[in-house]
Amino acid sequence: MNKYIILLILCSICFSSSLSQQEKFFCKQCHKFVHTIQKVEHFWDKSIVWFLELVAEGYCSYAKIEKHSVCKGAIHEMTPVIFEGIQTRFLDEDFICPLIRWCPKVYEELKLEDYVSNILKDKPLNTQWPEIDGTDTIEIIHVSDIHTDLFYKEGSAQNCDEPLCCREGFKLKDYNPKKAGYWGSAAVCDLPERTFEQFVNFLKTDVINPNKKTFLFWTGDNVQHDVWKQGREYNIINSKRITEIFKKANLGIPIIPQVGNHEMFPVDQYDYMTEKDSNLRVEFSNMWRDWLGDETAEFFKKNGFYAKEFDNLKVIAFDSQICNPDNWYLLKDPTDPTGFLEWAEQELKDSELKDQAVYFTAHIFTQECMVPWARRFNALVERYAYIVRGQIYGHAHGEFYNLYKDQNGKPMNIAYISSSLTTYNNKLPSFRKFIVDAKTMIPLNYYEYRLNLDKYNYIGKDAILKWDIAFDFLSEYGVTRMYPSDLYAITERLFTEPELVKKFDFNQNSGTGLSGDTAQYLYCLLNNSIKDDLKVCKGETLTKDWTQYISPGWRKRIDTSGEKEEKKQKKQQKKQKKQKK
């Protein structure tokens, strides 16, 4: 393929593109030539993918990244996706022919600064949240990263030679003889389904206040972590079973669900440019129809995101695969997949007119998103910071928050990232409950719940599981409010309060110990919602890895309808003149 591309580039230097007829001729020939290359390339697709898999498997095994069976399974799943993404974007006549100047441009670049300035052009002078009313409260329960393991085996090895343990037949990795407990293991293991069943029962009996309006946000990642041996149907089984357990319990509260990156097959991969993955949305929209309602379920099936309104609150739940840097299908085109940002802007405008508070919820928090997408989302949040009163995410398997900054670096919004219900990797099963001012929808406090696994594993299978309140936010971090300015003040105290550093470190690990996080690291983690800003804060040099060199920019197709209409009118005028003669 490379020699054909080089030939085209050399030939392009020899010809002028100033004459329209010449331009048309060469453009047509270029398209034909690229189509020929595509046919040859498609013929060799399987051979190329096979060769790439072979090389990657060899390196993975040689470098001892994982054992050979894991390397082989994971690489076999991912390589075709990566190859297809690169091939679709770069072996395309609308990319190659304008590049070598044999055809006019088909796409124009969408500059980040243009988007940001356009979004912020009518930003209100005052974007500060109002004062808390305090006369009534609502409650929001957040559970994320459930990751039930349908093959969990009590008494199996907690420390094995696979990336996921606590399963029958897996060998011990070293001389640590610790065995998997009945209710779960704070190790490289996922959650037994029976523990999740007890969790739902605990919500009903001990957490949901029948006298308070309560919501449940469920932000995805439901399948076990055996990513090297999965499949489409396999990956959705856990979600179906978890949904049925929730429904059977009849909690009597609105449930706001969304998918995570592990529901996809292969993990992290969702193709927005074809219909190959559309069946996943069909499955989930049908699964959650009782909660979403027919109209919202149909909208979610089509788009992957949705909004639900509850009087003075609107919840926007979006599929974070649209910004996931590990979603290789975005190599085809990362430009606002599904049109979420454009749609969200309209939803925010609508809520602004109604003076309605808005909560965003998704699986992946924006600090882990592709930077161009995260900066655009940050601008959107900045514009509507006055009404965006909450952001709730999972994915990290650890508890912390991210502050959103405006263009001047001032804190203006907050994303709350929750711990996981699964024990993977070395965690205690955790979830949280927010207490929220009913009028303004501003969070007043939250309670972090953790399960004492050692206690209940000792009791055994007859235990009735009760999660303990590990801490409440206000008491744990020494504040009286949860406004952006208050959470920023916490981060400044990290440099003078060693005990505060230990608290954040310990809570990030869901109560299983300390990682040795420094004040500077935590300050940067908490103070940034965009990955590049996090790196700069930590003193790292911003360098591109190989994926960023091949990752395309944002673009849109140039609208030539006006030119076509003008040409059509000229032809008609010429025809009329001839008829008059």
Put the structure in a nutshell.
The chain is built from 21 helices and 14 strands.
Characterization of this structure:
The protein has 581 residues and is of the alpha/beta class. It is 44% helix and 13% strand. The protein contains 21 helices and 14 strands. It has a 6-stranded mixed sheet. The protein has a 6-stranded mixed sheet with strand order 5-6-7-8-10-9, sandwiched between helices. Helix 3 packs across helix 4 and helix 6 (112-120) runs parallel beside helix 13 (371-383). The N and C termini lie far apart (54 Å).
Strand order of the main beta sheet, please?
Answer: 4-3-2-11-12-13
Percentage of residues in strands: 5-15%
- Gap between N and C termini: 54 Å
Question: What is the global morphology?
Answer: globular
Helix content: 40-55%
Oligomeric status? single chain
How many β-strands, per DSSP?
14
Low-confidence segments: 1-19
Largest sheet: 6 strands, mixed
- The Cα radius of gyration reads 27 Å
Overall average residue pLDDT: 90
Enumerate how many helices there are, as a single number. Answer: 21
Q: Structural class from helices and strands?
A: alpha/beta
Spell out the key features of this protein.
581 residues; 21 helices; disordered N terminus; ASMase/PPN1_MPP; glycosidase; six-stranded mixed beta sheet; signal; alpha/beta; glycoprotein; single chain
